[in-house]
Amino acid sequence: MKNNIATQDWLRRATAPSRIEIIEAYFRGHGYQPHRHDTYAIGRTLSGVQSFRYRGSMRHGLPGSTLVLHPDELHDGEAGTEEGFRYRMLYVEPSLIQSILGGQSLPYIKGGISADPRLLAAATPLLCAVDAPLQPLEEDEALYGLAHALSAVGGLRFHRRAFDYPAAERARDYIHEFFYRSISSEELTAASGRERWALSRDFRALYGTSPHRYVILRRISYCKQLLLAGFSMADSAIQAGFTDQSHMIRHFNACIGLSPGRWLKLHGLSSPTCTNVQYAPPAAL
């Protein structure tokens, strides 16, 4: 375990196979530029004060509380004191929550921070997986508990209404298969069997973001895999479906809150320089 007081920023990721991403990090000053995820970001401040702007106000995450940032909500991150802050965060796709809750509007935690002990207890097993990876059935049980804790603490953001969950899932599956190329509204309509505006409304309610942003985030996720595997930024951008490297960097900053170069540096890596890697269609993420 890293010391609470560090001289430079660092980040580490859980490396065991999992359906969620889990990180632990330390930032002494400024952490992240304003950005959005298409996942829930659920975490805990381990030391110091984790300050961030969320829904027009400055929030302060302290040890003992649970941070729950809703998908597609703009936020940043910085140290609230000179001590810096250390934290753990898990990123869980709304589709996993939907598979448990069965097609209701996504639970919303007001203000992005909760002191509710149910959320604290539900998030703990998953956040501890940075050090002690969970077995598949343990992870399933933990995700089940987390989904129901979110629902109990946050409730429904909107009055329940009829959604075409199977149609939205068909559209999401189509995006996962073809995100690396241009996808038209007509294609999603045909793949889902749902009228385009009805699909857009359902997709936002069920997965927390629009189909277009979901495509962009899938491309960024694939870019991260390629960069960690040693691909250059230019090749990663093209293989993921961006027009060029600058196009990818712009979206990377907007989605992650870090430049690709700084993101790699926090992982202890330098920017790859290999080029002319043979293209192969990506496997489903």
Automatic annotation (TrEMBL):
<protein>
    <submittedName>
        <fullName>AraC family transcriptional regulator</fullName>
    </submittedName>
</protein>
<dbReference type="InterPro" id="IPR037923">
    <property type="entry name" value="HTH-like"/>
</dbReference>
<keyword id="KW-0238">DNA-binding</keyword>
<dbReference type="GO" id="GO:0043565">
    <property type="term" value="F:sequence-specific DNA binding"/>
</dbReference>
<dbReference type="GO" id="GO:0003700">
    <property type="term" value="F:DNA-binding transcription factor activity"/>
</dbReference>
<keyword id="KW-0804">Transcription</keyword>
<dbReference type="Pfam" id="PF12833">
    <property type="entry name" value="HTH_18"/>
</dbReference>
<feature type="domain" description="HTH araC/xylS-type">
    <location>
        <begin position="169"/>
        <end position="266"/>
    </location>
</feature>
<keyword id="KW-0805">Transcription regulation</keyword>
<dbReference type="InterPro" id="IPR009057">
    <property type="entry name" value="Homeodomain-like_sf"/>
</dbReference>
<dbReference type="InterPro" id="IPR003313">
    <property type="entry name" value="AraC-bd"/>
</dbReference>
<dbReference type="InterPro" id="IPR018060">
    <property type="entry name" value="HTH_AraC"/>
</dbReference>
<dbReference type="InterPro" id="IPR050204">
    <property type="entry name" value="AraC_XylS_family_regulators"/>
</dbReference>
<dbReference type="Pfam" id="PF02311">
    <property type="entry name" value="AraC_binding"/>
</dbReference>
